[in-house]
Amino acid sequence: MLDNGADMVAVGTAFLTTYESPINPLWKKRLLSATGNDTRLTRLYSGKWARGVVTGYMQDFAQLDNDDLPNYPTLNAMTKSLRAHGATTQNSELMSLWSGVGVADCRDESMSELVARLAGMP
C-alpha cells in the first residue's frame, strides 16, 4: 500500500482476520470470503453510517436505510438483541459484520505476518 505512494493507510479490517483477533468466528469467516463488492454503508444496525459486509438483514430492510432512522445510540440499543441472537444462533445474516473497503485483502494469518506483509517484508 505504501509502495503505491500513500503516506499512511488505515488497515483495521485486516487485523480482524488475524489469528489473535477475538471477533466472532462467523464474522471472521465472512470477512475472509468477502470481496470489495460485498460491502456497503448502512445505518441499519447502529444509527451511524458504517461500512459492513452485506447481510440478509441489510438486504431485507434496505428501503429503510436512510437518514430517517433513529440515531446512535437509540438504534444501536434497539438492534442489540437481534445482533446477539445472530451470534448465539450462528446466523451471520443478523450480525453486524463491520469491514472496510479493502476486505478482499484480508487473510487468515498471524498479526506478525500481517505487519510484515504491510511493511513489504518477505
From TrEMBL:
Pfam families: NMO. InterPro entries: Aldolase_TIM (IPR013785). GO terms for molecular function: nitronate monooxygenase activity. The lineage of its organism: Bacteria, Pseudomonadati, Pseudomonadota, Gammaproteobacteria, Moraxellales. This is Putative enoyl-[acyl-carrier-protein] reductase II.
